[in-house]
Amino acid sequence: MKLIARLTLLITGIVLLAHYLPAGYWLVADKSQRAPFIFYSCVSNQFLFNRVINGELSHTDSHGKVYEREEFESLLPLDNYLQLYKDRRMPKEINGVAVTPEKLRRDRINLRIKPVVLDSPAVALYPLIESDSGRVRLEMPGDFMRFGRGVEFIDVKSNAVIAGKSAQFTAAFATAKFVFPVKLVGGNPSTLKPYDEGYFLVDSQNSIFQLRLVRGEPELKRLTDLVAPDKQPLWAGLKPLYLHVQEQDNHEVRFIIVEESGRTHLVVGADYQLVALPLEHYNPTTTALSVRGDMLNRLVAINGEAQVEAVVLTRDYQLVDRYAETLPARKDRLAGKLAGIIFPFTLEFESETSGYVGFHLDFGRPAALWLNGGLLAALIGWLLVRKQSLVHRVPELLAVAVGGVFGFLLVLLMPQAE
User: Fold this and answer.
1) Dihedral of CA 345/349/354/357: which sign?
2) Domain boundary at 82, 104, 126, which?
3) 110, 290, 353, 408: which has the fewest C-beta neighbours closer than 10 Å?
4) In sequence order, what DSSP letters do the residues of 249-293 get, joined into one string?
5) Same domain, 143 and 20
6) What angle do CA 23, 27, 33 make, to 5 degrees?
């Protein structure tokens, strides 16, 4: 019994130290370089950046020139128009295009995809909002939709299946030749948006459909049937991993398709134009993506621990310019290399790419095994000097052999076994 209790205490101690000791180390040692926030100036036609240097916010360009705040804002009038209008510094036209507050507001796009949305499990219940109710504001329905071998609607109060509505939608899916099961669902289940796109669904044949509720009736459309014949092979070759829907005031971007390969496409306009984003370093599982647009350009940027990249596109999505910058990853800096040697493994309960608690192990460098061996040899030598039996100290020896510095600290701090 004492042996079991001691083993339990050692294992619990190693788990806790593997989490808290590296966390404390990084709290002191982490001097990471924060990724810059990227802009594109329609005035000087160059990339501009907000950078944090030595704890201070700095406004720079790609050549390292530092700008005062007011000058920086003037180079980005479409991003800072509220301030420029207040200061009466807002130009009346830019590059021959007339500027009005309404046009500035209407033409803005702000779309974001974070890795957490791909890594976190979703509750497979979807409110299907009425897209054309005649009301000013969208309203949340009193039921939820779910998919299995077919489609069902669940009443939120009674938790009962609504047979009539389920049969109505099942017939619509059969008419549209949708092949169950549903592989992917993309939607924005919120009423805080200017209009409702419904849901984009991927069936078992990788065909993408759009489902909307229009005046109480289901509207299900296969997108390949709506695009030009010469574009259908592009749609047929897609292998979607994630569909992102985020309705914007200008109705320009319908949704975003992230493929299994990491290739990303915008679906644009009433004719569902497929626009491939010319990104070279986008990894949807580790990198955040943003699409920001104004009345002149579209800026697509990615932000990861070790890489930032941005491309500027015209309003018709032709490439204007690109920028890429490599940042020193935490594990490749001096503090990271030292941590990889000191700690044989690190245990995190939360992942940067998931909103859920779990166990996430990150193993150290091979040199950590040498440190484990050195600590084990030191412990054996210490026990022999004190003429203690190695057989009775097997749990402690195993703790040091596996846990390295974690096990060694536990042996020093724990009372000796009788």
Assistant:
1) positive
2) 104
3) 110
4) TT--EEEEEEETTS-EEEEETTTTEEEE---SS--TTT-EEEEEE
5) no
6) 115
3-class secondary structure, 367: helix
Q: Per DSSP, which regions of 109-230 are E strands?
A: 109-113, 143-147, 151-155, 184-187, 199-202, 208-214, 217-222
For residues 263 and 283, give the distance between their C-alpha atoms in angstroms, rounded to a whole number. Answer: 9
Burial class (CB in 10 A: 0-12, 13-18, 19+), 278: middle
Question: Are 21 and 81 in a shared domain?
Answer: no
Count structural domains, the chain: 3
Q: Which tokens sit at 101? A: 């507050």
The answer on pLDDT for 359 being more than 80 is: no
CA separation (Å) from 3 to 301, 392, 400?
Answer: 56, 9, 16
Distance of CA 396 to the CA centre of its chain: 42
Both 158 and 271 in one domain: the answer is: yes
> pLDDT tens for residues 223-265?
999 998 888 999 989 999 999 999 999 999 999 999 999 899 9
* Residue ranges making up the domain that contains 44: 37-104
**Which distant-in-sequence residues (6+ apart) come within 8 Å of 52 by Cβ?**
34, 58
Task: Answer whether 307's CB lies under 8 Å from 326's CB.
Answer: yes
Q: How far is CA 354 from each of CA 157, 191, 285, 360, rounded to the nearest angstrom?
A: 31, 25, 10, 11
% residues pLDDT > 90 (the chain): 56
Mean pLDDT of the region 293-312 = 93
pLDDT of 317: 95
- Residue 307 domain-assigned? no
Q: Do 263 and 397 fall within a single domain?
A: no
Instruction: Name the pTM for this structure.
Output: 0.85
